[in-house]
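Format notes (please read before filing issues)

Several people have asked whether sequences and structure tokens are stored in separate files. They are not. Every record keeps both together, in the order shown below: the sequence lines, then the token lines. Line labels are part of the format and must not be stripped during preprocessing.
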Amino acid sequence: MLKPPVLLATTISCFISILLATSCTKPVQEDPGKFIAVTYPKGEINGLPVENSVGSAGGTITSADGKLKVSVPAGAVTNTTLVSIQEITNTLPLGAGPSYRVLPAGLTLSKPITITLSYDETDLDGSDENALDLATQDDNGTWKRIKNTQLNKAAKTLVVESDHLGDYSFTGGYKLSPDKAALGQGESTVLTVSVLKEKNTEADEKEAELGNFFIITNAGDIETWSARGEGQIVARGSTAEFKAPSPISGHVTTEVSASVRNVKRPGRLTSDKLVLRKKITMSSDSFMAGYYDGVPFTCVGVSAFVASGVTVIQGATANNKSVLIFVNGTDVGSYSYGNPSEAGKAEIRCDLTGVIHETVYTLCGPPSSTGYASGGMTINNYQQGGVIAGNFTATLYDDIGCQLKTKKITAAFRVKK
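Then the structure lines:
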């Protein structure tokens, strides 16, 4: 059986007691014009697969989070086949959101299947919608962009026909990133643009190999930097500095953008330019804000304390709902989700809708087993006795019963201890 839900407000002291008793890939800085073949690890499974038997009449199957749909046409398979979609961790460079594993990977198809991947605003943060494509990873760990991907902006979907099953995600090729996404009044962050290199291919090839990625260092490749909202942005060659206003009235968000030129990405692009957009969150005081299952949320009260190397951050909304974060660490860096009694691990528990969702889940079995969400948390400011700031993205699980239900959360936070 799975553990029953408990109120977040009553779990903190108990959770810390348990902890006390139990005691990222970097860019390749090479010649920007040089393609370097790189293999990446296969994604690790995350949660339960969704399965459906498909016969000669065809059928469809949709992932647990509703974002990936596989349509098998009539006549594609001759024998009844169990097709599954499993969410997995995303190892695609500059990727966003989860990846998906569609099995059985070695299935022989007489007709191509149709794969539809939906995206939302959180997936686009730092990217350009016009450059999105589906990508697939082969058995050797090489990611490849599928060149005939169709973009539907109105439906916010990527659609492609494929002659094989396997691992899928989406790629944009370019990414705008700040070194800090949550700022206090008068604080600054440095903005950079990363590029994922693609191997040159012939026009009739269906896929293009993706390899190394690097940070743009040529100032001529950035046409303009801009900010829509409060704060100031100053170009500094191939990078820019964004500074939050002082003072700040409450909690505000500014969209910064970089217009990138000399884009050498073939496909649907009609020009050699992209506009990458990223949201920067600022506050005069402690805050936590983001999207929960696609709906914006803001915590009006945020607090933090540290005990024996474990950092605990709690945010409370105006209607007394909560987000609770446990981090086994007291320094800047990336923390993957796992058992927070282990160094370098983090856990999130949310009660934003009246039902607790968290980054840990238990499978009923037999045998029963425990798993953890994909993604992770980044802390980019940790001042002893001062400010803790960072951001996180996660798939969260409703750990009630044997059928796991998922929510997605993306947020930034800044809290004064």
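For reference, the curators noted about this record: The CA atoms of residues 151 and 376 lie 28 Å apart. Helices lie at 12-21, 121-124.
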